[in-house]
Write a structure and sequence with these properties.
The protein has helices at 19-23, 33-55, 64-81, 90-108, 114-134, 140-147, 151-176, 189-206, 210-221, 226-233, 237-257. With 261 residues, the protein is mostly helical.
């Protein structure tokens, strides 16, 4: 079975209120009100953490409460549909549903004006052209000069491109959280889709530097903060942010070049 390029080894050994769903094998609806309330209240903390983590990767005007609301609906769907016979623990199942609901909310949003979309296409094309000419990823001022845009316009465009490639990366995590976990019986196409996504992403990641790959792995798979990644790599937080943005921009340009939207 294929594994995600960002797969992490996570432990769920700490007892949680929702463990009762696995241990007793009873549906959420059969639990007493206090137990139901404890589960929803406790999981709300995870939803908020996931929402704020997602908010940090998208344009500033996006409201984090939209993600929290979507995630809460994802949790209720997970509670209604979870079955221990699936062979997957509830936290993995619920996190996948919650993340998927938040991503659906992201896809529903229309972040950019037509003018911004045209600017992004121009920036992407200039990056590809400059990479060919220079044999390396271009600096912001080089992109601005080629695109005949201000540095501020290019910087805003690069942030927008970062948020778009994040959506593609998190799609991998959304699919990997369910592929082969017992859901494939009802959705047999997921495993094939997962393999295709992983293969494509693996090709792109191979072109990144070792440090860029490490930053993505620690940040997306291990879910460390930028500060924690900096401590692990023994570099500054600013340098981590720079490597992260640089990696996302490289991936975005290559995804676009492969026709992978």
């Amino acid at each position: 079975m294929a594994t995600s390029p960002f797969s992490g080894n996570r432990s769920f050994s700490t007892p949680e209120p929702w463990d009762v769903l696995e241990k007793e094998g009873r549906p959420f609806s059969a639990l007493d009100f206090k137990t139901q309330e404890d589960i929803v209240r406790s999981y709300g903390k995870r939803i908020r953490k996931m929402a704020f983590r997602l908010k940090a990767r998208v344009p500033a005007h996006v409201d984090v409460h939209d993600f929290i609301s979507a995630g809460s609906l994802g949790l209720m769907e997970a509670l209604a549909k979870f079955d221990p016979a699936m062979g997957v623990c509830f936290q993995v199942y619920a996190d996948g549903r919650i993340r998927g609901a938040m991503l659906d909310e992201m896809r529903r949003m229309d972040w950019f004006s037509k003018g911004m979309r045209r600017r992004l296409k121009t920036i992407e094309q200039c990056i590809r052209d400059l990479e060919q000419d220079l044999g390396r990823f271009p600096a912001t001022d080089e992109i601005a000069a080629r695109a005949e845009l201000t540095l501020e316009d290019v910087e805003q465009g690069l942030v927008a491109l970062d948020s778009q490639v994040f959506l593609s990366l998190d799609l991998i995590e959304e699919v990997s959280s369910t592929a082969g976990s017992g859901l494939s019986g009802s959705e047999p196409y997921r495993e094939a889709v997962f393999r295709e996504l992983v293969d494509k992403l693996a090709q792109l990641i191979d072109d990144l530097t070792e440090r860029e790959r490490l930053v993505l792995s620690l940040y997306y798979a291990e879910e460390l903060t930028m500060r924690e990644v900096a401590e692990v790599m023994e570099i500054t937080e600013g340098r981590v942010s720079q490597l992260h943005s640089q990696a996302l921009r490289k991936l975005r340009v290559r995804m676009d070049g492969m026709g992978w939207e």
